[in-house]
Amino acid sequence: MDQHEVRVHKSEENLARKDQLAWKIAEVATDSVDVTPEVTDMVINRMIDNAAVATASLLRAPVIAARSQASAHPVSIGGSGSTIFGKTLDRRFSPEWAAWANGVAVRELDYHDTFLAADYSHPGDNIPPILAVAQHAGRTGADLVRGIATGYEIQIDLVKAICLHAHKIDHVAHLGPSAAAGIGTLLGLDTATIFQAIGQALHTTTATRQSRKGEISSWKAYAPAFAGKMAVEAVDRAMRGETSPTPIYEGEDGVIAWLLDGPDARYTVPLPAHGEAKTAILDSYTKEHSAEYQAQAWIDLARKLHHEHPELSDANGVEAIERIVIHTSHHTHFVIGSGANDPQKYDPSASRETLDHSIPYIFTVALQDGEWHHERSYSPERANRPDTVELWKKVTTEEDAEWTRRYHSLDPAEKAFGGRVEITMKDGSTIVDEIAVADAHPLGARPFAREQYIAKFRTLAEHVLDVEEIERFLDLVQRLPELDAEELVGLTVVAKHGLLSSVDNPEGLF
């Protein structure tokens, strides 16, 4: 990997284009190095993963609204159009709106892949916009694999180096540039065009993290879809010869100077050297459970404690517990733990989006039920159960310096997203246990492989897709590198007959 030093430059310094981070990213996007078999296999896995969680969300309100908006924008004149999850294969739509609808469907349940380092990310959010453009532009499966490999590479490399959340900037600010770069690779654009698209995509996708604070709204699912849509539009403008703010990262009125660490900031961004394979997707990990990634290991530990200590789960057990303290990383404590100081994280009437960012709630329900379900575990009836509310209020988090250090470790064998739990009983006895990574993590007790991705898809699609449709999609996606342009259009899922029409589409402007 090349290490690129990035700092703010005054306008009179005239930072050369070739020395700007956006240009370096564009050079990675135009490097035609072969995709490794391991990366190709993982791209297929993540295509399956995205389809699984999108399928499960087709009848959820934010997805219905996004699909309704996109349906008002049929295929444009510049290509063949793109498909939308749930709709029939013969229906095509404008690619930026297909990216929008599919991006919301993928993100709605907070149930797909993740990468955590200096910042946070769901790199699978790159797939909807890159796939939409691939379908519209008549590209092949091999082209799509190359584009997705770039999208993952750029997003993960940026997340390793540049922290957004410390300045309350939403993590999708890294997604706009990565998706634009991935689309550039897909289309075989030149470095200068991709450079302009990256700048425009970044400029339009910087927003605050209020979407993930307090009472969390449905915009949490829309934010990455918006970034993907902006990336498609940025590429379109750049292809027409339009330019972007430059230098977008390093300028004295640019992103780093005013939105991030300021005029004295310095970052070191790792990017593949020329001819080096783009393998960052292999550093990412998916979710077994529909919840914020930092909750994954805690769900697994709570399930374990449920079976090892069944006495904790009944009403008598709740009464016997004095308190539960989760010792964990800075992020888990301050973002989804009691350190956030969000009363909504303890509110039984809170939105699903809020509850999936509440580790006190998640740990409580998983401990009592010994399972986690993407719908049942968030239902109002479940959240309002009196014994659950009683126990929930006894759960707090504390930052532990060692778990924070491990969270930020660059050593994959040491990097961890868990911690230690101490359950103190009213009789003075304690139950103490810990977990480093989720069971589904590559270093966990049951790492996800193709078998698990397929099982996740089958489970989530069971009541949404016909059996024949499940098998059609799985057969097609596993042949991804061989697909021609016509076959690539089939990389979507078609809902059971009448399913989408069983719900009302909300009315708007379009």
UniProtKB/TrEMBL annotation:
Extract the Pfam families matched here.
Answer: MmgE_PrpD_C (PF19305), MmgE_PrpD_N (PF03972)
Q: Where is the MmgE/PrpD C-terminal domain?
A: 289-480
Q: Which residues form the MmgE/PrpD N-terminal domain?
A: 20-267
Q: Which reaction does it catalyse?
A: (2S,3S)-2-methylcitrate = 2-methyl-cis-aconitate + H2O
Q: What is its EC number?
A: 4.2.1.79
InterPro entries per UniProt: MmgE/PrpD_sf, MmgE/PrpD_sf_1, MmgE/PrpD_sf_2, MmgE_PrpD, MmgE_PrpD_C, MmgE_PrpD_N
Q: Which UniProt key words apply to this protein?
A: Lyase
Q: What class of enzyme is it?
A: lyase
**Which GO MF terms are attached to this record?**
2-methylcitrate dehydratase activity
Which PANTHER family does this one have? 2-METHYLCITRATE DEHYDRATASE, 2-METHYLCITRATE DEHYDRATASE-RELATED
Query: What do we know about how this protein assembles, alone or with others?
Result: Monomer.
The entry's family comment says: Belongs to the PrpD family.
Q: What's the protein name?
A: 2-methylcitrate dehydratase
Species assigned in the record: Terrimesophilobacter mesophilus
